[in-house]
Amino acid sequence: MNTTQVSIDDLASNHEKPQVKFWIQQKTPFPGKPDARVSIIKAFTSPETANSALIYERIRTLMNANQFDVVLGPEYAFQGANGPLSAELYENMLEELRMQSMGKDAIIAPGTFLWYNDNTLYNSAPVFYDGDLVAEHHKHSASDDQRLAHNLGLRATSGSRKLPVFEVWEKRFGIEICAEQDTLFERGVDTLDGLFVPACGGDLIKPKHVSPKGIILYSDGYTGTGKITRQRNL
Predict the structure, then answer these.
(1) How far apart are the C-alpha atoms of 229 and 218, rounded to whole Å?
(2) Is the dihedral of CA 100, 120, 81, 147 positive or negative?
(3) What is the pLDDT of residue 76?
(4) What is the three-state SS of the chain?
(5) Does a structural domain hold residue 1?
(6) Which residues of the chain have pLDDT under 50?
(7) Nearest one of 54, 67, 184 to 111, comparing CA atoms
(8) Which residue of 2, 49, 129, 211 is surrounded by the most CB atoms within 10 Å?
(9) What is the CATH number of the domain that holds 203?
(10) What is the pLDDT of residue 77?
(11) Which residues of 201-213 are buried (b: 16+ CB within 10 A; e: fewer)?
């Protein structure tokens, strides 16, 4: 894999809504890690625009400073300066984040990456832990992705065959993107300890496949807000 350093000049910048906040809730009783520092990235995103350069720069800085134990970013967080990321740039970003996660006892779900390969558009959510890519989920095509793919002369991906479920700290977590919520339940997954939901405008629903005491992290790029809650509180 190419390990060329990623330049933020290659990433999108949203000058109309430049605000990016890393909201950190201290001492969160997170599954498998009591008193965790949990961060939700609050930034405005859409299928056409995001402040990807600033999000990427800040997340690398915070990772190097070990300032969080868990982080979640919104849907469409990472895009190229002139549209979706190329496959090469996407792979370089994943490799750089994977390397930076090495030696860190933290779950890093930075948000989704909009990228293309050959004739296919992907909306992908990677998750890193201690130098490993523990999950990489491609969203099942939704109306926004299909419209964007059509406008670009591409086709939208049909999603991931592999279940986006991973284990860290002897606990079981999953990731679903926005309107996909509850698709893991439909595919036979149950009793997760936690769920990560990067979104852009979708409502957060009560997931059937998360235990009542399980935690749910939600980052919404449409409103630039986020939430940390329990399944039983929804």
Answers:
(1) 9
(2) negative
(3) 94
(4) CCCCCCCHHHECCCCCCCCEEEEEEEEEEECCEEEEEEEEEEECECCCCECHHHHHHHHHHHHHCCCCCEEECCCCCECECCECEEHHHHHHHHHHHHHHHCCCCCEEECCCEEEEECCEEEEEEEEEECCEEEEEEECCCCHHHHHHHHHCCCEECCCCCCCCEEEECCEEEEECCHHHCCHHHHCCCCCEEEEEEEECCCCCCCCCCEEEEEEEEEEECCCCEEEEEEHHHC
(5) no
(6) 1-2
(7) 54
(8) 129
(9) 3.60.110.10
(10) 95
(11) ebebeebebbbee
Strand partners of residue 123? 114
> What pLDDT is stored for residue 219 in this prediction?
95
Asked if residue 164 lies in contact with residue 209, where contact means CB atoms within 8 angstroms, the answer is no
Written as one letter, the residue type at 230 is R
pLDDT at 62 (0 to 100): 87
Using CA atoms, how far apart are residues 203 and 227, in angstroms rounded to an integer?
Answer: 11
| Of 112, 94, 114, 111, the residue nearest 48 (C-alpha) | 114
Whether 2 is covered by a domain: the verdict is: no
Strands 107-109 and 70-72: parallel
Our count of domains for the chain comes to 1
Give the structural domain span for 220: 8-233
* Cβ atoms 234, 205 nearer than 8 A: yes
Q: What are phi and psi of 69, to 5 degrees?
A: -105, -25
Q: In the prediction, which pLDDT does 2 show? A: 46
Structure tokens at 175: 């990731």
Structure tokens at 36: 């965790």
